[in-house]
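Exercise 3.2. Students should predict the tertiary structure of the chain below and write it as structure tokens, then compare their answer with the key that follows.

Predict this chain's 3D structure.
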Amino acid sequence: MTEPGAAPRFTTSLGTSDATTITLLGHDLAADLMGKVGFGELALWLVTQRRPTPSQVRVFEAVLVALADHGFTPTAIAARLTYLSAPDSLQGALAAGLLGGGSRFLGVTEDAGRFLAEALAAGEPLPADDAGWDALALATVQRARAQRRLIPGLGHPVHKVSDPRTPALIKIAEQERLRGPHLRLFEAIGRVHPQVLGRTLPLNGAGTSGAVLADLGLPPDLLRGFALLARAAGLLGQLAEEQRNPLGMDMYLAVDRNTAYLPPAGPNP
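Answer key:
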């Protein structure tokens, strides 16, 4: 707390600089980190303020790769059309794509992590085997159904049977001994949900990513940020391709030239 009349003090444990050095996370940026620390490792380190292990870095970067780009999704289209409108504002186009990361696209990563964390927060001992996880998952799905809640991470608009990212992420987490309770519960939800919902839906990659990130000990409130971090790379690739091979005008004209005007419904005043 600042004493009355004293100059305000602002504390940080991240970075600082002076005339000759830059310090980041307690290390000399130029001498200790540049060329020695990868970006994924640094991103995880910045958030947790603990240097991650190689296993944690591998799993984390697998999530970043899984979420980077999926073609002409709404986020990519928003970025390209914004760039069409304002080619002088690359940052605006990039931001437009990131702002579209919500409950249907990208936000599922956070929603799934939060949903799983809530289910595990009851304080009961963790199950010892698949049968125990299935029982916990069944109770979780039944409770969500009774509350008319959607189960985040179930279903995908393209991958109707299996999302190829899901088994790949599970395999990597298992290889690195980081297949923790959030992911195990999510896998169990994949096994038991047809008993409650009456249909079988795939576990999507965004939801699996949320489970994996939660098992890394990352707070649920930050998980969407990691999805956006990954998508920033994909959007930059989309915008680079837009510069090389512009498609934004074609997208705009496809809508504009195929719009059917209908008068407003109801009596006119």
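Discussion points: The chain has a mean pLDDT of 92. The radius of gyration is 23 Å.
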